[in-house]
Amino acid sequence: MLEKVETFDMNRVIDEFDEMTRNADQVQKQTLKDILLKNKSAIYLQNCGLNGNAADSEEAFKAMVPLVTDVELEPYIKRMVDGDTSPILTGHPVPAISLSSGTSQGRPKFIPFTDELMENTLQLFRTAFAFRNRDFPIDDNGRALQFIFGSKQYISTGGVPVGTATTNVYRNPNFKAGMKSITSPSCSPDEVVFSPDVHQALYCHLLSGILFRDQVQYVFAVFAHGLVHAFRTFEQVWEEIVTDIKDGVLSNRITVPSVRTAMSKLLTPNPELAETIRSKCMSLSNWYGLIPALFPNAKYVYGIMTGSMEPYVPKLRHYAGDLPLVSHDYGSSEGWIAANVTPKLSPEEATFAVIPNLGYFEFLPVSETGEGEEKPVGLTEVKIGEEYEVVITNYAGLYRYRLGDVVKIIGFYNNTPQLKFICRRNLILSINIDKNTERDLQLSVESAAKRLSEEKIEVIDFSSHIDVSTDPGHYAIFWEISGETNEDVLQDCCNCLDRAFIDAGYVSSRKCKTIGALELRVVAKGTFRKIQEHFLGLGSSAGQFKMPRCVKPSNAKVLQILCENVVSSYFSTAF
Questions:
Q1: Could you give the CA distance from residue 551 to residue 558 in angstroms, rounded to a whole number?
Q2: List of long-range contacts for 562-567, beta carbons under 8 Å, 24+ apart
């Protein structure tokens, strides 16, 4: 019997979102009530003095439940991972645990994953798809080239399935059915998505996309980094892919039996397609417009392109040519928060409208001085132009949880705020009285990279480290660049990096020599790929990987990889 597929009604989904956002305040109150009722037996809430009765008002919740970070919740979640089935954070045992990417702190965080989070994911995807499909309609019989990687779950010592957030979503039994009406069929067989070898999976994703090239409606990866990595890889393997298509025989590099079997079913000798791809690749200038050349009917390129992914947008735009870049929605391993309801905006301008029933949201004002913490405000109480740290309460046992993300309120969609992601709140570069965030580092690199671009060279990737092995300590910035240039150019870049940190504490410390000269360390080609391999070896998902922008002492292995691959270094003479 054929499975019944629910018909997707775009206008109904948009109307429902409009209605919900008009009543955002009431929806928030009801959502908090539902969360507390569903988890009323949770030991954590009872320890806070809440009992899941009518007296547990919004005001009582805020008064009795403290603001927390992952550090405070870690002991509770560890009990769940270890197999304790008592109602610790949630009313019922959680079916799985998610792992964050772990790139920021050198270790992944454990986060409860529940059926409600899965339903939230599908709700957000439906909402975002409705707005996206209104602006960029796709053909019903088309396909999607999706660079997704469902890495393996493992079973913890306590018997709980553990995997990355994306893996828990892709492996959830409700995922395929829930996505059927709102996504085009993937070009790649499931065996490729769930391949144990991500390199073989990536090669097969590319090959599958080209085999269905005329049907591809859009190209997707979770992160812009994944898209750039995919097409950088294509530059290296395209001739091998052409040979596979011409001969109808899969490359020997594919050794996973299930993947070989699935891909071999797609392949038949096709010299005409092989010659078309060869001709397209040979005609491109420095691979500009590669994506539309390969996929002539693609409508857009889709993925998370804001925040720490912004540095990859220029290269992605180079590959995309005139194709629109559409920013994926805003969320984290802890859960989804907001949808992109204005998909025509460029990644640099992208904003995200909070979906009021995905959780209970508070916003902690970000103090300019960092001294004295203000009280958080509610979803509808935020002010346009102000910056806040996001605080979430969700169905999966996170209560007044500080996400660490700083967002700026750009406007409102009805009565729900539209956010722009600014940066992670935790300071990543600080020696003395200086305070520089991930965003400050990004702006510094962008500024210095302009000098490099005059030489037709680009920054492939970057990171940083506080070097206190010397006195005074200094900032060390690691660059991997696309070509060779003379030392004067790199010295200019080094000075530009130093000058671009405009934080008053940094500038004054540099001038009075309490912070040493900034050091630019150029690393060998392939260094940042080695770092990715390191994290994949620790269990990170290829689709969820984010490059650490500041390498702390706790990330000793990553620091070792960077330092062992330095080919030249330059000290700033800017101060």
A1: 7
A2: 562/463, 562/465, 562/478, 562/521, 562/523, 562/527, 562/531, 563/521, 565/523, 565/524, 565/527, 565/530, 566/478, 566/521, 566/522, 566/523, 567/522, 567/523, 567/524
Q: Specify the residue for token string 């004295």.
A: 372
Pair 280, 273: CB distance under 8 Å: no
Q: HEC string of 18-64?
A: HHHHHCHHHHHHHHHHHHHHHCCCCHHHHHHCCCCCCCCCHHHHHHH
> What does the pLDDT look like over 42-67, one tens digit per residue?
888 888 887 766 556 788 888 888 89
88-116: buried (b, 16+ CB within 10 Å) or exposed (e) per residue? Answer: bbbbebbebbbbbbbbbebebbbbbbbeb
β 352-354/416-424 pair status: antiparallel
d(CA 79, CA 268): 52
Q: How would residue 3 be classed by pLDDT, with cut points 50, 70 and 90?
A: very low
Q: Please check whether residue 303 is in contact with residue 224, taking contact to mean a CB–CB distance below 8 angstroms.
A: yes
Query: What are 209's two structure tokens?
Result: 């996309």
25 contacts 415 by C-beta, under 8 angstroms:
yes
Closest CA to 389 of 367, 371, 410, 369: 367
pLDDT tens per residue, range 110-159: 878 877 878 888 888 889 888 998 899 888 788 889 898 876 667 777 77
Reported pTM: 0.75
Distance CA 425, CA 5 (A): 43
